[in-house]
Design goal:
This protein is of the alpha+beta class. The protein has 15 helices and seven strands. It has two domains: 245 residues, no CATH class; 158 residues, Reverse transcriptase/Diguanylate cyclase domain (Alpha-Beta Plaits, 2-Layer Sandwich). The relative contact order is 0.08.
Length: 429
Amino acid sequence: MLAGMAEIVLLACELLLYALGMLAAFRARRRLGLGVFLTAIGSLHFLETYLAANLYVQVAPGLSLSPGSVVLFSGKFLFILLLYIREDATIARQPIYGLLYGNLLAVLLGLLLARHVVLPGTSGASNDLNLLDPMGVLMVWGSVLLFVDCLLVILLYERLSRRSRLPVEVRIWCAAVVVLVFDQIGFFSVLHLSYDVPLAAGIGGLVGKVVAATLYAVLIGQYLRHFERAGPVPADVPADGAGPTLFGTLTYRQRYEALREQARHDAVTHLLNRGEFERQVGLHLARALRERRALHLVLIDIDHFKSVNDLYGHQTGDLVLREVAEVVGAGADNGASAFRFGGDEFAMLVTGIDHDAALALAERLRAAIAQRRIGEGETTVTVSIGVSTLPAGSNDGNVAELVRIADAMLYQAKADGRDRVAGTHVGAR
């Protein structure tokens, strides 16, 4: 029992040394570059594979495990997951493909090296390369498994991130345990057939990997919370973020999401753009009809905006657009969405309130914009606002009519002297 406890303490020390060493290298990536972290991952792979095949320790009666599998492997693919979480997918794929390619290349070179007529070593020790034959099989199989494991753990982590608000440690642990069970079955079957490793080692290895995954998940999660404050711990991945294939998801998902998010927003005001309005208004309308709730379209137009551009220049014009967008965006809460509708026009889709409350919201926006002092010259602008309301309980309604009525109300506000709000229900005109 004491001997088993001593082995467990040694394993815990090895895990802490490996984890802290790798986290320190990852933390230093901004100063030293990612090469240190990536090289450390790759350089330990041969040792990991050798230990997994040849070195086992007994931690309890009838229960043994390999430090190579439990400590080194369990940590390695979770550190690759860490790389994915904090960096880009195109960076995370580098060690995944690099380990696969490098190990296959090492095996091919080993086959040629074993054909040399080798002179005795200067120390008299054997330098027979025949050990590369069984090791080569393990390295190839282990590399293929690692490749699949890394893809799976990333996809599982993403799926958990999309579908839950679990702490990052729990998401890492859940993804890791599923993949480690899969890996243990795949890797141990080859060990058992090639090296006659007993079943107790397979069970011990699985238990050890689950325990190691727990410790690594806690350490990585705490590291993310306390040492990666330059950005948030990613928790929310868009529901349609995953690509159609493992390779596509891993390689291009983040680039695709960044471009997709950029395409949804207006470059000047950073509000959602007209295309996003066209996509969302139909969804809002369908939901309002289904739930028998009111839907309001608020159209906002800057009064005499052309004069602002003519008098002060387009830079001031862009500043005015951003200032107005800031007010409109700040007003888009409690189920509202704000858009740059086009040119000097903005739009809001509002639910959850009645027509009078929507008019009051529009009035607050109008007053807030009129009070703004914009730029060094303290330019002031006013807006005219039109509101169309699809009443709660409506059985019919369409986007074209909602926009037409809001547009008519906007022109009514302008005709009445500008700097004012006008609104009515759909069907009232």
